[in-house]
Design goal:
Layout: H1 9-18, E1 24-29, H2 41-50, E2 55-60, H3 68-74, E3 78-82, H4 89-98, E4 102-107, E5 125-129, H5 143-157, E6 163-167, H6 175-181, E7 185-187, H7 190-193, H8 198-217
Parallel strand pairs: 1-2, 2-3, 3-4, 4-5, 5-6, 6-7
The structure holds zinc ion.
The site of zinc ion has 5 residues, from β1.
Length: 218
C-alpha cells in the first residue's frame, strides 16, 4: 500500500478489494531502522475499516515488541518483524502469536537464511527482502533467488508450515523465477500501482501461482 495514492486511499483500497490480490501489505517505517518514515497506526486503522482482505503488516522499526498489541488493535492479521531489529526474537514471535496474529520474520538482503534454523518451526512466514528496505525504486537483488531456494529446503526439512514471502522489486520480469524458486507470497507495490491497469497486473502475478499449482498436480 506504500505505492498507493494516499490522497485517494479509499479508491485504491477498493481496487485491491476487487482484484485477485490475497492480502494488503503495509510497510511501517520509523526513520531509524530504515531511513524513511511511512505511516503509523491511524492509517492502518483507516485501511482496516475499508479492506475486505487480511492485513499483512511489515514492521521496519526498531523495538517492534513495544507495538505488538497496538498493531493487533489497529487490525493486523499478520505481523512481521525484522531479524535485525530484535534481540529476543523467540519472545517477540510468541508475543505476536499470543495476540492471535500470524507471525513473520523478515531478513535484510545481507542476513543469511541459516540464522532462522532454530526459530523456523515457530514461524508462520519468512519475508525475504529482495531490495534493501526503506529506499525507493531499487533494483531486484538476484541473490534473493538462491536464498528462497535454500529457505524452501529448510522449511520442508523441518516440516514447518511457514510461507515464504518476497518483498522488493517484484514485477512481471522477476516474479516467474521467484515462484519457481519457492516463493509463496509476492509483495508488489510500484509495479501494480503504476500499471495502466493495476487489477490486470495483479491478475498476471496470480496466474503464475495458478500455473505452479497446475504443475504440482500434474
Ligand atoms: Zn514490506
Amino acid at each position: 500500500m506504500l505505492s498507493a495514492d494516499f490522497g485517494n486511499l479509499s479508491r485504491d483500497i477498493e481496487m485491491v478489494n476487487r482484484s485477485r490480490a490475497d492480502w494488503f501489505h503495509l510497510d511501517i517505517m520509523d526513520g531509524v531502522f530504515v531511513p524513511n518514515i511511512s505511516f503509523g497506526l491511524p492509517v492502518v486503522k483507516a485501511i482496516r475499516s475499508l479492506a475486505e482482505k487480511p492485513l499483512d503488516v511489515h514492521l521496519m522499526i526498531t523495538g517492534p515488541e513495544r507495538y505488538v498489541s497496538d498493531f493487533k488493535k489497529a487490525g493486523a492479521d499478520w505481523l512481521t518483524v525484522h531479524y535485525e531489529a530484535v534481540t529476543h526474537l523467540h519472545r517477540v514471535v510468541w508475543q505476536i502469536k499470543n495476540e492471535d496474529m500470524l507471525a513473520g520474520v523478515a531478513l535484510n538482503p545481507h542476513t543469511p537464511v541459516s540464522l532462522l534454523e532454530d526459530i523456523l518451526p515457530d514461524l508462520d512466514m519468512v519475508l525475504i527482502m529482495s531490495v534493501n528496505p526503506g529506499f525507493g525504486g531499487q533494483k531486484f537483488i538476484q541473490n534473493s533467488l538462491r536464498k528462497i531456494s535454500k529457505l524452501k529446503e529448510m522449511v520442508l526439512g523441518c516440516g514447518s508450515d511457514a510461507l515464504i514471502e518476497v518483498d522488493g522489486g517484484v514485477d512481471a520480469l522477476t516474479a516467474p523465477a521467484l515462484v519457481e524458486a519457492g516463493a509463496d507470497i509476492l509483495v508488489s507495490g510500484n509495479y501494480v500501482f503504476k500499471a495502466a491497469s493495476p487489477e490486470a497486473a495483479i491478475e498476471g502475478l496470480k496466474e503464475l501461482g495458478d500455473e505452479e499449482e497446475a504443475d504440482d498436480e500434474a
